[in-house]
Amino acid sequence: MEDTRSTPELRAALLDAALIHVAFDGWSQATFAAACTDADIDPALAKSLFPRGAVDLALAFHARGDAEMVARIKREPLDGLRFRDRIAAAVRYRLEAVEDKEAVRRATTLFALPVYAGEGAKAVWGTCDLIWETLGDRSDDFNWYSKRATLSGVYSATVLYWLGDTSEDHAATWAFLDRRIDDVMKIEQVKGAVNKNPLLRGLMTGPNWVLSQIKPPSKLPRADLPGSYRPK
Asked: Which helix (H) or strand (E) segment is 9 a member of?
């Protein structure tokens, strides 16, 4: 009998079914097979939706969290906050979008494998790109890359801390996040001081000009990769 569910419905059903098994079997072929059975989806059809099986399911789980984060950023009243506090709030929203910490722990293990490390890095970069984009970043030079690279480091470190945090309401994680962002702001303060110093500003004229010529990748179509080719 032909399955009449839409593609988004099938993908969501498979992911929901998989999450029940991830705590026991990780993001593995066993989890993928069990999800097909539980969601009553033919394995061949499931493979057409997630060609690499559980790896693509793990990425879909990450994308679901990203979507929930973006929706929350848009509905929360953040305009009155300092920009550093908006960034901190966005990272917090992303972690609070996760209902199953063990699924993230298992995904971290999966994407630590050399064969999937690139996929994990791309997923983190994509999350940080969404944060900056949703908060209204309009960078059109090297700053586009530096902002996302810096936030990727902050986000990755915070996720690892959060995975081991047993404090009430993850208070220790939010304090850790604030410290990391404060460290980043100190770097920005040093950059600002350099630009205000007449001697140092002159020395940086050439390098700054070169960096200003570096453009972010095209958004049409979105490649989700830093430095992707940008057609004229």
From this structure: helix 7-25
